[in-house]
Amino acid sequence: MKNYILVFCVFLLYACNVETSNTEDITTHIKEDFTQYVNPFIGTSKMGHVFPGATAPFGMVQLSPQTNFELMFKEDGSYNSDTYKYCAGYQFQDTTIIGFAHTNFSGTGHSDLGDFLVMPTTGELILDPILTPTQRKGFYSTFSHDSEEASPGYYKVNLDSYNIQAELTASDRVGYHKYTFPKSDDAHVILDMVYNVYQHNNKNVWTFIRVENDSLITGYRQTKGWARTRKVFFAMQFSKPFKSYGHKKYNEETYDGFYRRFNQEENFPEIAGKDVRAYFNFNTEEGESIEIKFALSSVNTDGALKNLRAEIPHWDFNKTKAETQVKWNEELSKINVTTLSLDDKRTFYSALYHTNLSPIIYEDVDGKYRGLDQNIHSSQGFTNYSIFSLWDTYRALHPLFNITQTERNNDMIKSMLAHHDESVHNMLPIWSHYANENWCMIGYHATSVIADAMAKNVGDFNHERALQASVNTANVRYFDGLGDYIDYEYVPDNKSHSSVSKTLEYAYNDWCIAQIAIQVGDDSLAEEFMKRSEYYNNVFDASTGYMRPRLSNGDFRENFDPMDTHGQGFIEGNAWNYGLYVPQNID
Questions:
Q1: What is the pTM of this model?
Q2: Measuring CA to CA, which residue among 64, 224, 19, 68 is closest to residue 155?
Q3: HSE-up of residue 179 (Cα within 13 Å, Cβ side)
């Protein structure tokens, strides 16, 4: 879905009368309020892969309503396909909200994240989101789209079950909540550390919460999901002291040492376990607002506190909202469309908005970040980014960034090179997020991003270092049929799935490496990888006119259907559209 938005944006750049501006021009003169044209819901399909929440451009915090709780597996162990609908945590068709999470993917074809779900409630304290063990209503609330407002950097909705108005905004690393309550002696804010997007029973590895005082909470969670070893730390600051607090554990406790001496469930300031939900109790007057600043860090809780104090040192929700909207207007005004109808402008700027959601800033305000080696690093001369969905983004998003985000794209390439240096495989990212490589999809398309930037003279990254990282990546023989590709000069279909797609995409990536080598002046590597870039010829069947799966004995596979998109040697495509995939040799 994201690809269609990106291609549409790039098409409009050439099809319409547009003016592009550089960043220096924008900060001194923004022609109009471009955020008025953005509808974050545009692009929300029945698969629900777009979130409508509050975030700054490329922000680490992507604060969004979560509308259901689906486990990845059914009780019989089979896959629950409904969980895939909630890749971004939100489904437009839903009528319930279970809370607001601080990390979300947008536009991806797979799921993770959904960290630190916060939900305000009133009345009896309920700590189960959907149904209690006795089948009573959980802490979710019904809502209506009529009460929703969503614009860049801001989200608002009425939680009808509690008569609470929820408002969200965010800086780069801090989510800012504002909940306006009715009069209540039983108002609660639930911090659900069990919830995940793409939840399975063993996704949470460990959770820790520390009650620092009557309004400040710190902690972290480690999960094992699409990212195998992912740690996120937080600092949560309330605008008002809570009167009491507690928690409930949802995992079986096999050993708890001498902590068993305490009643840990109520007003005990250390909370630790695999699956934990905490709560904080308040008295509220009619129309009283409780605000929460929720900062993230990949490093530690001290980093989260530094982020909180640096980015939102005040208690002025509207100030943060306005500052983030200015950031969004600066990004959106880089392309000034002058010839579209109002509806088309909304579509265009909504699409442009979605292109600025990720990759995300992935370092604290002091430049520290958790690396792929799980050690703490400091960025030197760049801002570190994460969420590289490169099979999806090398075609259109990064080329667009070379027009609209030259400084960021330069930093993203430096982040990819840092990933390579931290990788025990000595590889550039394939599909990486939150200090993890998840190995999704095929090819090594970071090479395309690097070659494109070099061809357009974008960035000051080290070209020799980029060439070596690309060559290293292209020679990891145990990666996804790559050794066979090197030996056979194609990927044999009886040795690897998606064999034709891999052959074609490896050949294109090798051409990109050859272009990098030409610019660096390494004739030997340029010749080697130009030769490899011709390997696409070895899966072309001249007798049928199609790219076709080929076996290790040299024969083309029998029982071949060029229209079929499953089991024919292609991934997310077939012989018809992949037959056009020789971008290094269009003729």
A1: 0.94
A2: 64
A3: 29
